[in-house]
Design goal:
Elements (H helix, E strand, L loop, with lengths): L7 E10 L6 H11 L5 E11 L2 E11 L6 H8 L4 E11 L1
Antiparallel strand pairs: 1-3, 1-4, 2-3
Length: 93
């Protein structure tokens, strides 16, 4: 008997705030509340962009069977204070 295992994907996202006054720590707390079910936040970091603007970079993991990145991107984009969500990388683990 063979066991079918579902692959997981790790998605690296860069979330750009609307301006430098957006608290990235607070934004991360709000992201944790709206991230789709079955998606797990693995690692986060704050990275400088330019002129005092910083972005939130995060790795999220989910089962490949749950589809692509659209649901994760849309849930984050809908938050107040988010200007843009970029997918930097998707890898299978």
């Amino acid at each position: 008997m063979s066991v079918l295992t579902v692959a997981r994907v790790v998605i690296t996202l860069k979330i750009l705030p609307e301006d430098i006054d957006v608290s990235l720590d607070n934004l991360l707390k709000r992201i944790r509340k709206v991230i789709p079910k079955g998606t797990e936040i693995r690692a986060t970091e704050i990275v400088p962009i330019a002129f005092g603007l910083k972005a939130l970079r995060m790795n999220v993991a989910k089962d490949e069977s749950l589809g692509g990145t659209d649901d994760v991107e849309e849930s984050i984009k809908a938050l107040k204070g988010v200007a843009q969500v970029e997918v930097e990388m998707v890898s299978r683990v």
